[in-house]
Amino acid sequence: MKPRIGIVGNVFTGDSEIFYHNHATYTFQGNIDAITQAGGLPVVIPIQSEELAGEYFENIDGLFLPGGQDVTPQFIRSRTGSATKNNLFETGQV
Fold first, then answer.
1. CA–CA distances in Å: residue 83 to residues 51, 67, 69, 88
2. Residue ranges of the chain whose pLDDT lies below 50
3. Which of 21, 59, 80, 81 is the most buried (most CB within 10 A)?
4. Contact 37, 19 (CB under 8 A)
5. Helix, strand, coil: what percent of the chain each, to 5?
6. Would you call 77 exposed, middle or buried from its count of C-beta atoms within 10 A (0-12, 13-18, 19+)?
7. Which residues pair with 41 in a beta bridge?
8. Torsion-angle region of 10 (φ positive above 0: left; ψ -120 to 50: alpha; else: beta)
């Protein structure tokens, strides 16, 4: 059985006809291809509540945090900004 590698998805919140004016969870195809070529089974994980992070982690064998969206300043020792859902979910998995 191939190892399941979770990829924390990014969230598109803009207004786009491509997604029929809905928000979308996505990852770049290169992330999927790299995990597949390395013998893994990529699983895109949607950003959910911080409390659910552990449940996602229990169902995967590895975790890939691709980044791509801004890191909330509090996670880089700045006094400005507030925690985003992405940052809280990702730190809940680590």
1. 15, 15, 13, 6
2. 78-83, 93-94
3. 81
4. no
5. 35, 20, 45
6. exposed
7. 4
8. beta
